[in-house]
């Protein structure tokens, strides 16, 4: 089983990423369940604006698209900015819009029988809003969202320290992340054993 984590931090490599740090705890849990995990740091790529799988010369999205189709599990990891998903997360979802018109050999949308979850960091409140925004988009595309397929970290409303700068709340975020990983893996296995059929015509 393969999983793909798309880190939607605004910080290009090699800058430290709070979102990457929390994602590492979920990645470890996924690997503990036997999953192979790929990580994409979207801000490091040239993801052109648009809603097509390939936006032409220099577009790096086709490589990400290949990883999406090779994975049974997807995690979108985003920081919170102004109580909303990052602009990078929005760009990723917009590019995934092309998957709405793609089908497999059995005429099922290509996101069918794949599961997805969301991970959020931020030193302000708004994590549940970010989770709902991203989960809603992924569900529209065709992903199955298991119960409690998310984790987040923040220290309440208003400005404050970052995940990498403060140990408070890490135990809860890690515990919730382990539950998230377990739910994603087991839901993916269930769909593999009993796949969703193509939508009725």
UniProtKB/TrEMBL annotation:
Residues annotated as domain NADPH-dependent FMN reductase-like: 1-130
Annotated InterPro entries: Flavoprotein-like_sf, FMN_Rdtase-like_dom
Designated name of the protein: Flavodoxin family protein
Species of the source: Streptomyces thinghirensis
